[in-house]
Amino acid sequence: MTYSSRSRALKAVLIGALCAFILAGQIRSATTANTAVSVSIASFCLVAVTSSSVNLTIANPATPGAVPFNATSTSTYAQYSSTVASGVTRRITAAWATGNSAPTGCELQLTATPGSGQGTSAGQILVSTTAQNLVTGIGGCATGIGATNGAQLAYTLNINTMTSLVANESKSATITFTLTDS
Question: Is residue 118 part of a domain?
């Protein structure tokens, strides 16, 4: 083989290799697949309280003639998850369950303090048998599930009529929390 036939053969091999690379690149770039993905988000609203019970006790006053101090607890949280349609908000209401009430001579006040983006506190309410707003303006959110996540609940058992208090009265009452559309 002469120099020129070797040169031609080498050129043919190089051109063939170049064509193979170009065709392989075109074949690779033409290999694709598509799929349609359908996505939907369910509407949901879930609420729970971190403790199934709160203990409030009106204790003896420290000084004779003094009115006892009100009993308070801030160790419980309302936790909730919510998705809403555009322009819709939810609220949490609180009320005594049927047949329940505060002890004689007392009333129960309740306040919720939600975290940022978890709604707005309706302020302090006096718990009654009529559901009252506790947290309003709840949009899409999830408060978290840790022991101190959610809207902190502050319970205060107030003495409203000292002469109506009944010594040793012990009562277990239920408060119903409801998360619903506003």
Answer: yes
